[in-house]
Input
Amino acid sequence: MELDLSPKEVEIPAHVPDELVLPFPFLFGVKTKQDPFGELAAQVHAETPPIFYSKHAYPGGTPAWVVRTAEDLKTIHFDTENFSNKGFSPFSMIIGETWNLVPAESDPPIHAHYRAFVSRVFSPGAIAKLEDKIRGYAREYVEGLKDKGKCEFMRDFAFEFPIKVFMELMGLPQSRTKQFLEWEEAMLHSHDLKKMAVATRSVVDYLREELADRRENPTDDLFTYGVQAKIDGRELTDDELVGFTFNLFIGGLDTVSTQMGLQFLHLARNPEHQKMLRDDPSLIPAAIDELMRAYPAVTVFKTVTQPCELKGVKFMPGDKVVMSATLAGRDPAEYDAANEIRFDRESDGHLSFGYGPHLCLGMHLARREMRIAMEEFLRAVPEFRLKDGVEVEHYLGMIQPTAVDLVW
Amino acid sequence: MPKITYEQPDGTRAELEVEEGMSVMRGAVDNGIDGIVAECGGACACATCQVVIGAEWRDKLPAPGVLEEAMLEDVEGDDRRLSCQIEVTAELDGMVVKIPATQY
Output
């Protein structure tokens, strides 16, 4: 069964003024040869009001509000009273289950308890201990491809590398990496509801088996951490443990792969930036944050819980809101020359890991993975560029290059 | 207004008046004090607004909440706090907070 992402005939609710119903280019399941950042995001900023309503902006082709400025996105990220994170991902629903992602799909007051429980294992100090392991995995890939003169960066490095780190954290055998990659592809890239459901079911069953195993055979991995944890004085329920481990799976794999792909696409197109970073690798952390600012891939969604208003626009309960980091990163009101990439930008930060209480919990791990990947690749591989004649395409939704063909 | 002194790792100090009710983080960020990143904007979600609080002031602060405690686990020393979680009060007038060399 093909997931129906086609635009639906939609009725515009009475509280939405006609003049705010406008087109939005970032539709889930769509591929484009246009530049999603410099062209499409810039166009949204040039042509639409700060908050508008679009008929097919929500995954599945249904309507949602689009908030395009960094300022308003920050306000909504902080406003957990009016805007809920519950149920923004489809995975639990498509296999007929009831769990929410922990902590991504939770709201206050339980959110702080979930967040404290997960933060402990993703704090800067905890993540710093993984440095050598992560570098070891990055080296494996780079050593394997450096003498080949070419690679498809997504397939040959970016997709698998974060899975290796995930397997390490979860205490899972590295031999299952390919299996996880297959599941991830079916869930996130097939756009086929049946395949998505089958893969989601496989992942959830696997996570449940591992959770059951760690109850019997505790080790020092995150499954064990979950089954032994107490929040607010009680153990986690089965739903919470599945939500927690599934959140790690969904949050930390494809997102990191995608950002890596976008970063290397930029470097392939800008040899002068490659040179800067090769000449002085200490610039890499700042470069990664500027590339995160300029090429954010992720969009999250909120659901309005009570009537409220922002900048004169009325929201009603049940309204969906598109929170696109891609738009935030290219907001001309927030960034001087938003479409220029400057590694020495005096920046006020970015919203590419989100903002407010739900800020990406894995960001310290993600930054470390991206930094090490770039350090190792630039160290081992000479100046690279895009293969001649290749036309780059991106999936929209989460903005991901379909392939990054590099030659050197 | 209470005065808060922000001390950089090199010893440079800036004494600022910070409105009561504002966070120590907000006082720094709004006044362009270097070294306090506050990536999440003050939601106790990123641990990038760490400060070091001297012994003489530590007891005057409310104890860290469950989330702040979790964020600071594994961080060296027990004198770190997240400055977004410290609300400025009259009692904190004169407090010195040291900014660590890095937030990451």
